[in-house]
């Protein structure tokens, strides 16, 4: 039993160092990926829940590794955050999204995701100001999606940055609403332009749970604050009917379209009107 234990331990150790090695390799690759132009953006439409007319696009980053192929954001964003690489990557996302949005035959906003780590970068507000000036995108056409992890830091610097960003004229959306611990108290501390209801609430809607009551309450909250509520991850007509009945003003999800490459945006604008 002792030998077996040792063998198990050794196996575990080997496994550990293998995965640490894999992780270190991913980090090295990530550093090179920006220079090697292995990233690209995909865009997912957001539409109003009644007419299904185009209301905006969310830009999502994609990494196609030369050897491994596509690496999911949920695998590499955390590493980019831990290593600080999210700062240059985030800048690239911002710049690329703005540059592409000015070419679209529509004036709907483009949304990008901002990591809490980007708020540790004192240059963030200047970077956004500079990219807007360089690309010529109207500030009102840029929407910044933040999660409550940004506000969790609860410091004056972050609050000041949010207000400075707002002062540039960009829109600020609260992403993944409802899954955190204190989403409600953050709504009180900062006036968001939009609430995005987390996909987990939508996924269970047609399974007869209490989620519809919760989604309705969140939509009413948005409505009484005078802001839009977007239901994330709407995949079925039934979910659409429920979130519409609950009062969500907008939807985003595979039902309308999965995220698509820059080349397909024109076709989406045509299909969804704007
Ligand atoms: P998120 O910001 O909540 O983005 C929505 C995610 O849900 C996207 O996954 C999108 O492809 C997926 N999705 C959209 N509609 C549906 C649906 O109907 N069903 C299902 N099952 N999924 C749907 P993706 O692109 O894999 O991104 C995952 C997460 O990675 C994002 O979650 C975001 O937190 C992060 N991420 C992606 N791009 C960026 C980026 O440029 N910067 C930062 N900081 N984070 C990013
Ligand atoms: Ca998002
Ligand atoms: Ca989200
Ligand atoms: Ca998320």
UniProtKB/TrEMBL annotation:
It comes from the Bacteria. Residues 23-273 form the EAL domain. This is PAS domain S-box-containing protein/diguanylate cyclase (GGDEF)-like protein. It comes from Phreatobacter oligotrophus. The lineage of its organism: Bacteria, Pseudomonadati, Pseudomonadota, Alphaproteobacteria, Hyphomicrobiales. The chain holds residues 817 to 1090 of 1090 of the full protein.
């Amino acid at each position: 039993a002792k030998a077996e234990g040792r063998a198990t331990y050794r196996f575990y150790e080997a496994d550990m160092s293998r995965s640490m090695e894999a992780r270190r390799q991913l980090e090295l690759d990530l550093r090179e990926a920006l220079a090697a132009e292995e990233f690209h953006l995909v865009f997912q439409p957001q539409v109003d829940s009644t007419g299904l007319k185009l209301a905006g696009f969310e830009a999502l980053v994609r990494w196609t590794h030369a050897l491994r192929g596509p690496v999911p954001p949920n695998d590499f964003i955390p590493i980019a955050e831990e290593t600080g690489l999210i700062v240059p990557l985030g800048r690239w996302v911002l710049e690329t999204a703005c540059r592409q949005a000015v070419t679209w035959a529509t004036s709907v906003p483009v949304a990008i995701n901002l990591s809490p780590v980007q708020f540790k970068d004192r240059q963030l507000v200047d970077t956004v100001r500079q990219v807007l000036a360089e690309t010529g995108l109207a500030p009102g056409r840029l929407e910044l999606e933040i999660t409550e992890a940004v506000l969790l830091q609860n410091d004056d610097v972050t609050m000041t940055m949010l207000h400075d960003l707002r002062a540039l004229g960009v829109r600020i959306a609260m992403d993944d609403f409802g899954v955190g611990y204190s989403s409600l108290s953050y709504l009180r501390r900062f006036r968001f332009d939009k609430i995005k209801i987390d996909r987990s609430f939508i996924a269970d809607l047609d399974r007869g749970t209490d989620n519809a009551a919760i989604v309705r309450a969140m939509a009413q909250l948005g409505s009484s604050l005078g802001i839009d509520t977007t239901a994330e991850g709407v995949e079925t007509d039934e979910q659409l009917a429920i979130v519409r009945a609950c009062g969500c003003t907008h939807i985003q999800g595979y039902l309308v379209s999965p995220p698509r490459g820059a080349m397909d945006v024109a076709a989406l604008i045509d299909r969804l009107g704007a």
